[in-house]
Specification:
54% helix
Protein backbone atom coordinates (compact mmCIF):
# COMPACT_ATOMS: atom_id res chain seq x y z
CA UNK A 1 0.00 0.00 0.00
CA UNK A 2 0.84 3.67 0.13
CA UNK A 3 1.20 5.52 3.46
CA UNK A 4 -0.25 9.04 3.67
CA UNK A 5 -0.21 11.21 6.80
CA UNK A 6 -2.79 13.76 7.99
CA UNK A 7 -1.06 16.51 6.01
CA UNK A 8 -1.29 14.43 2.79
CA UNK A 9 2.49 13.99 2.83
CA UNK A 10 4.34 10.82 1.91
CA UNK A 11 7.41 11.13 4.17
CA UNK A 12 6.80 7.86 6.03
CA UNK A 13 5.97 6.04 2.80
CA UNK A 14 9.15 7.19 1.05
CA UNK A 15 11.37 6.43 4.04
CA UNK A 16 9.75 3.01 4.35
CA UNK A 17 10.25 2.02 0.73
CA UNK A 18 13.83 3.32 0.74
CA UNK A 19 14.53 1.13 3.80
CA UNK A 20 12.91 -1.88 2.10
CA UNK A 21 14.88 -1.32 -1.09
CA UNK A 22 18.15 -0.93 0.84
CA UNK A 23 17.45 -4.19 2.69
CA UNK A 24 16.87 -5.91 -0.65
CA UNK A 25 20.18 -4.52 -1.95
CA UNK A 26 21.90 -5.88 1.14
CA UNK A 27 20.33 -9.31 0.54
CA UNK A 28 21.53 -9.25 -3.07
CA UNK A 29 25.03 -8.28 -1.93
CA UNK A 30 25.33 -11.13 0.58
CA UNK A 31 23.46 -13.65 -1.58
CA UNK A 32 25.42 -13.17 -4.79
CA UNK A 33 29.18 -13.03 -4.31
CA UNK A 34 29.90 -12.90 -8.07
CA UNK A 35 27.59 -10.10 -9.13
CA UNK A 36 28.43 -9.11 -12.70
CA UNK A 37 26.65 -6.62 -14.97
CA UNK A 38 24.37 -9.29 -16.47
CA UNK A 39 23.30 -10.68 -13.09
CA UNK A 40 22.78 -7.16 -11.71
CA UNK A 41 20.54 -6.32 -14.67
CA UNK A 42 18.50 -9.46 -13.96
CA UNK A 43 18.14 -8.78 -10.22
CA UNK A 44 17.86 -5.00 -9.75
CA UNK A 45 14.91 -4.33 -12.10
CA UNK A 46 12.96 -7.25 -10.63
CA UNK A 47 13.76 -7.10 -6.91
CA UNK A 48 14.61 -3.48 -6.08
CA UNK A 49 13.19 -1.02 -8.59
CA UNK A 50 9.56 -2.18 -8.17
CA UNK A 51 9.82 -1.31 -4.47
CA UNK A 52 10.82 2.24 -5.42
CA UNK A 53 8.15 2.68 -8.09
CA UNK A 54 4.99 1.02 -6.78
CA UNK A 55 2.08 3.47 -7.32
CA UNK A 56 4.60 6.27 -7.93
CA UNK A 57 2.07 8.29 -9.94
CA UNK A 58 0.15 8.70 -6.66
CA UNK A 59 3.03 9.70 -4.39
CA UNK A 60 5.64 11.03 -6.86
CA UNK A 61 8.20 12.96 -4.81
CA UNK A 62 8.34 16.74 -5.18
CA UNK A 63 10.72 17.51 -2.32
CA UNK A 64 14.41 17.33 -3.20
CA UNK A 65 15.18 15.37 -0.01
CA UNK A 66 12.79 12.61 -1.14
CA UNK A 67 14.13 12.59 -4.70
CA UNK A 68 17.66 12.26 -3.29
CA UNK A 69 16.64 9.43 -0.94
CA UNK A 70 15.10 7.43 -3.78
CA UNK A 71 17.88 8.11 -6.26
CA UNK A 72 20.39 7.21 -3.52
CA UNK A 73 19.18 3.62 -3.59
CA UNK A 74 19.93 3.34 -7.30
CA UNK A 75 23.28 5.11 -6.77
CA UNK A 76 24.25 2.48 -4.20
CA UNK A 77 22.92 -0.33 -6.35
CA UNK A 78 24.96 0.66 -9.40
CA UNK A 79 28.13 0.79 -7.28
CA UNK A 80 27.70 -2.93 -6.56
CA UNK A 81 28.67 -3.86 -10.14
CA UNK A 82 32.40 -4.68 -10.37
CA UNK A 83 34.42 -2.08 -12.26
CA UNK A 84 31.85 0.69 -11.82
CA UNK A 85 32.50 1.74 -8.23
CA UNK A 86 34.89 4.57 -9.16
CA UNK A 87 32.75 5.96 -11.99
CA UNK A 88 30.25 8.78 -11.60
CA UNK A 89 26.57 7.94 -11.18
CA UNK A 90 25.80 9.28 -14.65
CA UNK A 91 28.56 7.11 -16.19
CA UNK A 92 27.30 4.03 -14.33
CA UNK A 93 23.77 4.64 -15.62
CA UNK A 94 25.07 4.99 -19.17
CA UNK A 95 27.17 1.81 -18.97
CA UNK A 96 24.26 -0.17 -17.47
CA UNK A 97 21.79 1.46 -19.88
CA UNK A 98 19.56 2.48 -16.97
CA UNK A 99 17.54 5.69 -16.82
CA UNK A 100 17.50 7.62 -13.57
CA UNK A 101 14.46 7.02 -11.37
CA UNK A 102 13.38 10.60 -12.04
CA UNK A 103 13.42 9.96 -15.80
CA UNK A 104 11.34 6.83 -15.25
CA UNK A 105 8.81 8.80 -13.16
CA UNK A 106 8.48 11.44 -15.89
CA UNK A 107 7.96 8.74 -18.51
CA UNK A 108 5.37 7.04 -16.28
CA UNK A 109 3.56 10.36 -15.80
CA UNK A 110 3.45 10.88 -19.57
CA UNK A 111 2.08 7.38 -20.12
CA UNK A 112 -0.58 7.86 -17.43
CA UNK A 113 -1.52 11.26 -18.90
CA UNK A 114 -1.90 9.69 -22.34
CA UNK A 115 -4.10 6.91 -20.91
CA UNK A 116 -6.37 9.44 -19.20
CA UNK A 117 -6.64 11.69 -22.26
CA UNK A 118 -7.44 8.81 -24.63
CA UNK A 119 -10.03 7.18 -22.36
CA UNK A 120 -7.94 4.14 -21.46
CA UNK A 121 -8.41 4.99 -17.77
CA UNK A 122 -11.83 5.44 -16.17
CA UNK A 123 -11.05 9.05 -15.22
CA UNK A 124 -12.60 12.26 -16.50
CA UNK A 125 -9.72 14.20 -18.14
CA UNK A 126 -11.39 17.51 -17.21
CA UNK A 127 -10.70 16.69 -13.56
CA UNK A 128 -6.95 17.03 -14.11
CA UNK A 129 -6.35 18.80 -17.40
CA UNK A 130 -7.41 21.85 -19.34
CA UNK A 131 -7.12 21.42 -23.08
CA UNK A 132 -5.43 24.14 -25.14
CA UNK A 133 -7.49 25.66 -27.93
CA UNK A 134 -6.79 24.02 -31.30
CA UNK A 135 -5.22 26.48 -33.71
CA UNK A 136 -4.22 25.84 -37.28
CA UNK A 137 -5.10 22.86 -39.38
CA UNK A 138 -5.17 19.22 -38.33
CA UNK A 139 -1.90 18.50 -40.14
CA UNK A 140 0.11 20.76 -37.84
CA UNK A 141 -1.64 20.32 -34.50
CA UNK A 142 -3.69 17.80 -32.54
CA UNK A 143 -6.62 17.91 -30.15
CA UNK A 144 -4.72 16.55 -27.12
CA UNK A 145 -2.57 19.62 -26.50
CA UNK A 146 -2.72 20.67 -22.85
CA UNK A 147 -3.05 24.23 -21.61
CA UNK A 148 -0.18 25.19 -19.34
CA UNK A 149 -1.32 27.48 -16.54
CA UNK A 150 0.96 30.28 -15.45
CA UNK A 151 2.02 30.00 -11.84
CA UNK A 152 1.81 32.92 -9.47
CA UNK A 153 3.25 33.12 -6.00
CA UNK A 154 0.65 35.70 -4.97
CA UNK A 155 -2.68 34.65 -3.53
Amino acid sequence: GVLIDNELEFDKHIKGIVNKANRMLWMIRIGFSCLDKSMFMNLYPVLVRPLLEYCVQVWSPHKQKHIDLLEGVQRRATRMVPGLKDKSYEERLKILELPSLEERRIRGDMIETYKILTGKEDVNPDTFFQMAPVRGNSETTHSLKLFKKKVSSQL
